[in-house]
Amino acid sequence: MKALDPSRGLRPGELPRFLAWEALLTIRAALEPTIDRDLKARCGLPFTWFDVLFQLNQVPKQRLLMHELAAALLLSKSGLTRLVDRIEEADLVRREALDGRSTYVAMTHAGMTAFKRAMPFVQASIRHHFARHIHDAEIAVVEPVLTRIARAARHQGTHVPPHAKDQQGQSQSTTRLGALRK
Known about the structure:
The chain contains six helices and three strands, in the order ααβααββαα. It is mostly helical. It has one domain: Arc Repressor Mutant, subunit A, CATH 1.10.10.10. The protein has a three-stranded antiparallel beta sheet with strand order 1-3-2. The longest helix has 29 residues, at 15-43.
């Protein structure tokens, strides 16, 4: 059987865009488990837990409604429920009932301690595995392009949580790991 040419059916100029997509898939598939292993080895904290704590750290009172947190993490409500169950068992978050239908997820003191301990390791891991491969002359192009694509992807079928908007109602350029800018 003859292999299908992946560029077949593409319009002129599209091949580099499809190669960029393939590169993004490779980056995520390769680096997410690597960063997860680094963080578990150094802090005993899975990257998914860190991501929850990161999102909670970004908002006043370090708490979000379950549906807001699910939207911020791009998770289903049931997937978030299972994740929060595990993090709550470790006493890093707690649920706070708002009314009969809504529940907040709030970071505990232990959660803030774990987050503060983990942040330098996450920053170092991202620096080592990702950021160092972007040259200074490239970042002025790479960051806005990836941010624009991420914003468009987030808006396709998902709700942007209120805390991910600035005072003018515009989505901030990064909501997942924006603290790397600090």
